[in-house]
Write a structure and sequence with these properties.
Layout lengths: L1 E2 L15 E7 L3 E2 L3 E5 L9 E4 L9 E6 L17 E3 L4 E15 L7 E4 L5 E3 L5 E6 L8 E14 L2
Parallel strand pairs: 1-12, 2-5
Antiparallel strand pairs: 2-8, 3-7, 4-5, 4-6, 6-8, 8-12, 9-10, 9-11, 11-12
Amino acid sequence: MTNFYPGLARGPIDHESSSVVNVIANETIDMGAAVVLIAPPTTELLARVENGDAATEFCYGIVVGGDLDGIYGTGAASNDDTTRAGNATDAVVVCTQGRCLAKVTGDVLPGAKLAVSATGTLQAAVTTQTVVALALQDSGGAGDHIIAVDVQRGGAPLA
């Protein structure tokens, strides 16, 4: 997986115009993954997130840090947690609006509208999906990559 913005290890690209929130991971989550909100256990009121895994899901944001504070890396979560933001019940930091790094799948051009893929990454949106972000960089072709994106609060259906 190629990282086209290697200088950033944690947080949004622009702290002044981005919104980040702290939430609880419901499962292992990698840096740059697209996440969705889920119902928390009845014993707590804290927001919980998990990896987006369906193209029709509404994305809450992109994970940009967490308790493990891994780095944007090779794609598959490693055994030594180097690319993870957090495991189940760990805190993770989610960018809900603004510019950050995200994992994308496929050939993505600058300005492309992005939606959640079935693998927890972002992909070029099709007409049945809700736009989550706009690509700020070229992904460099097929495969999985890490690029800068602009997360759009609330999204919008792609018409």
